[in-house]
Amino acid sequence: MAIHPDFPGLEVNIIVEDKTAEEFAEPVFEGFKDDDGDVVIVDHKIKVLERYVEAKPRATFAIEVKISPRFKYLQNDLYFHFDIDGVITTKRYSFRRDHVRGGNFRVRHIKTKSNRQIVQKDLIFGELETDCTHVHLKSSAGKQLVEEFEKLGKITCKVYRIIASDEKPVTGDERNYDKDPSVGTGSVPEKALEKAHRGRSLSRRTELGPAVAKTPSSCTSFKKTYIDKEDEPFACFVFKYRSMEDLHKELIVPRPDDLESRPVSSLSVQEKDRLIEKMRADQVKHERLNARIAFLTQEKMKRRIAELEANSQRLKREPSEEDKITGPDGPSSFKKRKIITHIEQVDLTGDA
């Protein structure tokens, strides 16, 4: 969960396939950690909380906002501005009258209007493909491409305090909808992407799902007055989504074997936690394997003993080949003859 350190009670998460995505921070090594951790200062004013999440291909995702009673701005109306890849934008409001009941919501899709038809499109992690298109990076067109590509792979949530006034109900036909973004799905020039993300790895982009027709619904229109300056949100969350291979390449998530081979002193707090969790899981797996081996060995010994006992009983019941011989050639006759030949006959008459 991404909780801004300056605003406890304000939480933003990325939900992938209806499950909260695991978040990763830039590795912070012991001896180099500061009080802000993974909070970046922008223009000396805005504190941006940055996290990384895994973007699974073709998976639907949503942005979840949770406001708890600990949040210090419960008495204010709040405006949330969402930007994805610098292309998809949408907004949500959370009014102070609703904060008592909890200000939780999810952004799962965008709604657009075309020719009086309301359509809804889900947010999906797509594949970002590159090509070898030649681009003059120093030209105005090349610089513009680089600026656009710098926004790829980012989900941004900016939070403002506002005053909502002059509320009035409006019909579904009168309400404002999201702009229909021209989301690209083709390949992009590799050199421009590398320039925009120097030293980084990026293979994901956001796409929109198929259009689903929706019935227009009524809502409330109001006048929005900023308490915070429009260019100075009081809080900002940035989620950089990557494939797991990208996270490995950027050293955000160590490859499975790396943690065990590295010195403990070089591991971050998050890496130590993951290593402990992995070692415990390996221990459980090892114990189960040993128990299975012991069980199979015991069963094998039981079968062997039973086999030997059965064979022994069979040998006791079956006569030998010699026992099967009868008559004068039998073993009993042989013994009898042997005894007879050893009897000496003595003449008691004394005759010569």
Automatic annotation (TrEMBL):
Give the DUF7918 domain ranges: 9-255
Q: Region Disordered: start and end of each range? A: 171-214, 308-336
Compositional bias (Basic and acidic residues) spans? 171-181, 315-326
Instruction: Check the record and name the Pfam families matching this protein.
Output: DUF7918
Q: Which domain of life is it from?
A: Eukaryota
InterPro entries associated with the record: DUF7918
Coiled-coil stretches are none
- What is the recorded name of this protein? DUF7918 domain-containing protein
Q: Which organism is it from?
A: Venturia inaequalis (Apple scab fungus)
